């Protein structure tokens, strides 16, 4: 018995609905739901959607990440960060969801996938503490 | 140092402090149970890579799945909770090491646990390493003197060999290992004793015994106790062999004892089942053979061009009701270069060490014996086998011819000679003299209950009087005619006084 992974299903949905008109797409989605119900896999929908999102981003050459900062990031800063990240991950488009976190004290922190670039003041102070205590 | 100084120092430190901007791979704990953590993220992690949890606990990534990894936690997992950040280190698990580790008791990750303070380490060694290849190896031809007569004479162990000690519970497996360590004093050998899943009380006893015998100076004990996590039991033997490799890399000969590998396999089975790997025979995972073969392959004798040194491994396996055909015993028997088989029946008959000579074998064999020992012990195994057969046969009838009777009497004396008390290793030269006296028939007319007394007396008497013979055996490893004549005369003299 072969096992169909959630990733396979998401991939199939993407390939089937790519470049299709609205009507065609809604028909495809109906069929997908029917298929999932028939195969008793309807509980997997949230995970399939998550994977579908990743697959679409991957095909469209785009990354989605989060940015944490103490204060709202200015327009110019945002542009620069976007440029750097686009270069780093060699993608066309970068979408950053901004989040405000007072505890960071200053600076900002970016999360893309499982990669974290931490440029906050909080982290720096932690590092300094580590440095000062380890030398003694 | 006054306050100003401290402030100045701090200022300087802070000024010199710089951080590098770097992207870190971070995972999140999805679930924790029974010493196992499922972690999401960490997409670039390698198999067996070390990861760090927030409290400083380390773990090892064993299962790499599509979007999560299975990590075994080395240490206390009660503080790790769902959502904790996990960092990868990019390194295979390694242990800190230096020469100061000699005489210490360390846990499975090389941290001292004997209360004698920290060990200053100069190097780190990875616990998993590929075993030395064919080109770097030498054949085994140097003996490991165990000081146990039956082993040195019949089942000799060579430096670089892997000899399994197998038997039921309470048959003296650990005793053989400990006696061997005790006998390595002055033999230019470093010993590593790996205790896996043993009771702490037993470990304490062993440590005290080694201390008393002056053996801790050249011994390291690695312990993963019965109360610790299975993950620690799983990595303890690899830690042990890494310590052994550290000393081998200095060109030294090392003896390593794994006590015992059946508990190691059980610990690995526990981890594997928790990681949801499919169970096979006796519920062990499919790679349980590889688990032990990659460990024991690291025992070797290296040639001079590659640094020399050797690792001799004595794994111990406990059987259930003498069943050597169970999964783990057959696996380890096929990996090792021979086995010392201990039997409950013999043990309770008073034949201790309870070695079953018929089933025990050393595949490296007599090439690991000195010439003198080879000469006196050559036929001993066969003689004993014939004796066993005759003994069974003789029970049916009483009418026996002279030669059979003689063979039986000789056999009984051989069995008596091979008995030995615990913690009383015998020097190789004494063994040679005793076995010489036995095989040349000097003991045939000594009463069986006086054999032990005769043996002890002869050892000290001959050492004082057969100086030429002893010198030849010690230096040339073999005697010549002159030495033999002298020994014969000395034994005859001693016997005269003894029987009078």
From TrEMBL, chain A:
Pfam families reported for this sequence: OSCP (PF00213)
Keywords tagged on the record: ATP synthesis, Cell membrane, CF(1), Hydrogen ion transport, Ion transport, Membrane, Transport
Superkingdom to which the source organism belongs: Bacteria
PROSITE patterns xrefs: ATPASE_DELTA
GO molecular function: proton-transporting ATP synthase activity, rotational mechanism
Topology of this chain in the membrane: Peripheral membrane protein
Subcellular location: Cell membrane; Membrane
GO cellular component terms, A-Z: plasma membrane; proton-transporting ATP synthase complex
Functional note: This protein is part of the stalk that links CF(0) to CF(1). It either transmits conformational changes from CF(0) to CF(1) or is implicated in proton conduction.
Family: Belongs to the ATPase delta chain family.
Xref: NCBIfam families: ATP_synt_delta
The protein's name in its UniProt record: ATP synthase subunit delta
Signal peptide: none
PANTHER family: ATP SYNTHASE DELTA CHAIN
Keyword Lipid metabolism applies: no
Automatic annotation (TrEMBL), chain B:
Domain ATP synthase alpha subunit C-terminal: start-end pairs: 369-494
Swiss-Prot/TrEMBL catalytic activity: ATP + H2O + 4 H(+)(in) = ADP + phosphate + 5 H(+)(out)
Keyword Cell membrane: yes
Entries under Gene3D superfamilies matching the protein: 2.40.30.20, ATP synthase alpha/beta chain, C-terminal domain, P-loop containing nucleotide triphosphate hydrolases
Annotated site, Required for activity, chain positions: 360
The keyword Disulfide bond is assigned to this record: no
Subcellular location: Cell membrane; Membrane
GO MF term (any one): ADP binding
NCBIfam families: atpA (TIGR00962), PRK13343.1 (NF009884)
Protein name, UniProt field: ATP synthase subunit alpha
């Amino acid at each position: 018995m072969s096992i169909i992974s959630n990733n396979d299903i998401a991939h199939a949905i993407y390939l089937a609905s790519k470049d299709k008109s609205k009507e065609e797409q809604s028909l495809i989605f109906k069929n997908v739901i029917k298929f999932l119900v028939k195969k008793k896999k309807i509980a997997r929908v949230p995970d399939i959607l998550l994977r579908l999102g990743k697959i679409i981003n991957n095909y469209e050459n785009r990354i989605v990440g989060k940015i944490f900062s103490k204060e709202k990031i200015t327009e110019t800063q945002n542009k620069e960060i976007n440029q750097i990240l686009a270069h780093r991950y060699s993608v066309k488009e970068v979408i950053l969801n901004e989040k405000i976190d007072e505890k960071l004290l200053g600076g900002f922190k970016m999360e893309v996938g499982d990669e974290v670039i931490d440029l906050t003041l909080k982290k720096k102070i932690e590092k300094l503490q580590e440095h000062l205590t380890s030398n003694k | 140092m006054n306050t100003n100084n401290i402030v100045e120092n701090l200022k300087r430190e802070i000024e010199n402090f710089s951080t590098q901007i770097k992207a870190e791979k971070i995972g999140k704990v999805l679930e924790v149970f029974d010493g196992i953590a499922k972690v999401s993220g960490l997409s670039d992690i390698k198999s067996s890579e070390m990861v760090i949890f927030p409290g400083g606990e380390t773990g090892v990534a064993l299962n790499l799945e599509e979007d999560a990894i299975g990590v075994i936690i080395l240490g206390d997992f009660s503080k790790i909770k769902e959502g904790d950040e996990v960092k990868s280190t990019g390194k295979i698990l390694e242990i800190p090491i230096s020469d100061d580790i000699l005489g210490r008791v360390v846990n499975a990750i090389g941290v001292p646990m004997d209360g004698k303070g920290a060990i200053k380490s100069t190097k780190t060694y990875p616990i998993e390493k590929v075993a030395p290849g064919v080109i770097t190896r030498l054949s085994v031809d140097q003996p490991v003197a165990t000081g146990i007569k039956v082993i040195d004479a019949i089942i000799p162990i060579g430096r670089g060999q892997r000899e399994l000690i197998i038997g039921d519970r309470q048959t003296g497996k650990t005793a053989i290992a400990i006696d061997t360590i005790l006998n390595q004093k002055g033999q230019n050998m470093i010993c590593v004793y790996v205790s896996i899943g043993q009771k702490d009380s037993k470990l304490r006893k062993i440590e005290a015994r080694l201390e008393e015998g002056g053996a801790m100076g050249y011994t390291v004990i690695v312990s993963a106790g019965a109360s610790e996590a299975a993950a620690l039991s799983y990595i303890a033997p690899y830690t042990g062999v890494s310590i052994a490799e550290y000393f081998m890399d200095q060109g030294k000969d090392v003896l390593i004892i794994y006590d015992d590998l059946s508990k190691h396999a059980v610990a690995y089975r526990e981890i594997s089942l928790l990681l949801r790997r499919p169970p096979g025979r006796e519920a062990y995972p499919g790679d349980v053979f590889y688990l032990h073969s990659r460990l024991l392959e690291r025992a070797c004798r290296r040639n001079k061009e590659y640094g020399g040194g050797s690792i001799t491994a004595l794994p111990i396996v406990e059987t259930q009701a003498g069943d050597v055909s169970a999964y783990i015993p057959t696996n380890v028997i096929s990996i090792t270069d021979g086995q010392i088989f201990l039997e409950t029946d013999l043990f309770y008959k008073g034949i201790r060490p309870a070695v079953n000579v018929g089933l025990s074998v050393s595949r490296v064999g007599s090439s690991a014996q000195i010439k003198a020992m080879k000469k006196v012990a050559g036929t001993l195994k066969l003689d004993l086998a014939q004796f066993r057969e005759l003994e069974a046969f003789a029970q049916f009838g009483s009418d026996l011819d002279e030669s059979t009777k003689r063979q039986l009497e000789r056999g009984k004396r051989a069995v008596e000679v091979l008995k030995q008390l615990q913690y009383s290793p015998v020097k190789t030269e004494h063994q040679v003299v005793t076995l010489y006296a036995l095989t040349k028939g000097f003991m045939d007319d000594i009463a069986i209950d006086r054999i032990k007394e005769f043996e002890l007396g002869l050892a000290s008497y001959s050492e004082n009087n057969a100086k030429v013979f002893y010198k030849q055996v010690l230096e040339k490893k073999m005697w010549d005619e002159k030495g033999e004549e002298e020994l014969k005369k000395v034994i005859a003299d001693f016997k005269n006084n003894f029987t009078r």
